[in-house]
Amino acid sequence: MRRAPEELARAFVRACRLELRALKPGNVHVHGGSPRYGLTVDLFERSAEAAATAIADPRPGLGRRILEAVRATRVVAGTNTNLGIVLLCAPIAEAALSARSGEPVRAAVRRVLAEATVEDSHVLFAAIRLAQPGGLGRSARHDVAEEPTVPPSAVMAEAAARDRIARNWVDGLDDVFGFGIARLRRLLREGRAVEEAVSGLALAFLARIPDTLIRRKRGPAAAEAVRLRARCLERRSRQRRSHAVRPLLRAFDRELAASGLNPGTTADLTVATLFAALVLRPGWARPLEEPQGPC
Fold first, then answer.
1. What pLDDT, in 10s, does the model give residues 156-178?
2. What pTM was computed for the model?
3. Coil vs helix vs strand at 190
4. Among 72, 197, 229, 270, which is most buried by a count of CB atoms within 10 Å?
5. Is residue 204 part of a domain?
């Protein structure tokens, strides 16, 4: 299932905007007050628009696609706003641009990740160094401060146990295609409005997976505590009407933000799922194509 570059660029920006409009506990969004963690909604929007051209570049090259998106982001943002988003969305774009006849996007994603070379690792490491993600630390093997000698598949396999994005590179973006897409479809089939469905998707990710960014910055106990709180809230959301759960969601959001607990990897997985959904079926979010409100 091939997609044209202009379709992919629009889908990428739209996915980022949809994520910013939804109430997602602890993240930057239009409902949470801005700035948060020194970052604003506008900064994330400008980052999305800047990175979109590189994400959708028709020229092949997974590592180059990531590096150019990070470079474009640094020009407009001056900081790391979307490395995780880029790392998850670039393989989807590469797959959608290069899919063979009859090849599903998910299969193409697996192929693209498996075919990435040592040269892709060199460019990938350069992108990570440029982005300077918070709490990255050092690694005994395949440290990004050094030059790689293996392809991304080996690099990510080494980091998969401690980093959810790395794990997704190893398992073909299973969180996105295996869990995220199915959960989003279920929420929409239940009659949820798009914004509410996106909020529910983010909460489902947070309830299922200890957030990597929280784990890196605050430790595994903090990440697990947030996950357990999210799980309780998600169970309530399935049992009550949305208007009854929203105050609880807002309170959880304020609590996380006040404690400096930003589930950034959860936001990255949410954007990547929205992007994949828009690649697979471009029209499902059409009522929200145009910017609304603060976006």
1. 999 999 999 999 999 999 999 99
2. 0.92
3. coil
4. 270
5. yes
